[in-house]
Amino acid sequence: TSPSQMARIPQELSTEEKVLVTKLADVIEKRESFFNNIHALEEVLFEEDATQAMSSQSPAKKRRRRKSSVKHKLIQNPTYNRRTPWPTRMYVNGVAAQTLDQALQTECFPGTGDFDIVNSLFEFVSQAIKLLDVKDISNIVGDVTTTVEKLRTERESICANLLKMPLREGKSILCSVFLGQSTPTLLPLDAQRFLYSVERAGRFWRWAAITMMRSEFELLRGDKSISWPEASLASHLYFGIENSALCAIQELVFEFSFNNMSLHHDGLRLDYKTMQAICVKHLLDDTPGVAELTSEELVEQFCALLSRIVHEKTGYIVRFREKK
User: What is the mean pLDDT of residues 95-108?
Assistant: First the structure.
């Protein structure tokens, strides 16, 4: 069953049946993500240079050598590139933590933590809209601000009580609809009404992006591979704000000789040893006993430090947490 086939399922289904169908669609999406991860790992697992292939070692030794080579390649600190001439998301070159599912990251990168911004999209968008200071003649911005503020502060409640689904699945729908996808029809009526307001907020965000990024919009319009330049530009506006936060914490980490760091779109994966060194240096004056803190307390202090750095460097207020 594909998502397009699901869209043709009769609307006479009960609410419980609609929720089950929505969950099935999420399972299909996760299945695709799983196979993408398998293909990414295969690129590394079956890569064998000519010198190793011509070696006279026994097959068992060859396998051991290839396994250690795989681990070495995965833990190297990767390089990144941007796909546009303006600041936006940074994508890893090759196979690294950024390209792997969370479970595989944990397995392949022991001794590291994944620190990301909580509810990144709506945190940044909510604050950015307020910074625009648009003259709201017909209360359009007021309605948009109200909707985005709910998405920022009440996301978990919206997913549980309105969408009737777990946070993992619900937040994916909220983000997708805001960024331009159609509102799913296989949801309770109240949920659909709210998602229509999310659609309107996303439309306003696209208008804001075009208004502020005219030259970038023209570049995207001239790219035949982009079918909807308005939506693409709106995503890039968010990516640019997100990237400014990432650059701020990247500067913090680069003060140290880290063992492993991988930049992700809304945070980073960092080894715990470097995390502790950063905490000791930057928090010692405010927290004299920082060196004796438990691992959980250190993570909490580190996340608070990242939030403070982002606020000082960018003006945006965000909250970090360690993703499990």
Answer: 77
